[in-house]
Amino acid sequence: MNQWLDDLRTATAFLTRLPMPHPDGARPESFARAQRLFPLVGAAIGAAIGLFCLLLRTIGVPDLAAAALALGGSALLTGALHEDGLADVADGFGGGRDPAAKLEIMRDSRLGTYGALALVVSFATKLAALASLPNDMVVQSLIAAHALGRGMLPWIAISLPYARKDGLAANAGRPDGTIAVVAAGIALVITILALPFSSALLAAIAAGASALVMAQLARRQIGGQTGDVLGGTEQVAETAILVLLAARFG
Predict the structure, then answer these.
(1) Single GO cellular component annotation (predicted)?
(2) Residue 4, domain member (yes or no)
């Protein structure tokens, strides 16, 4: 039980900006193990964002404005960790002429044209999807999207080699197959509890398809994974799920 609590603290400290002590989270093997609880922390993030969005709607804030403020609150809560990864992936994959150049661009903290466009498209898509969801589906949809998006990360981590030896992904340690299965299982259970069964299965398929596409793209572009690839995968999966649920319930 203590190990699970340690993993929860480690996952929360990494995925959010909450002041969460984690006694051995700096060790690669501990961080790799903690990835099994990424979906649980993701669900909590989604619930917080959804409740905030619902509160804004309840006090009369227009749906579009409420969605924008909720997404802004999400970025504050998470430190825009995955959004930064998406932007770096777009800059590197779009602007580099070979894998080495792409990796160098991805390491650069400055935001380029491709990264800015990716962030705008992602934000606008999530904004429109969230604004179109009815009140009784806002919290549930965000819980599912954030849990599934983070539940895919261990699968990317075990299925791709490291594109560089000194990046965040390499230093964090690689989870094993059991961790990936547990993470996916937790994400799926959360999604089934949050959504109608057929919608939960479609959301899980959307998350898996997003991860598969990103994995294949990263393999072709840079030969493997980086921390930015993991972050970009979460954002693509999250956006795809919200669009899917908006189409079904909006």
Answers:
(1) plasma membrane
(2) no
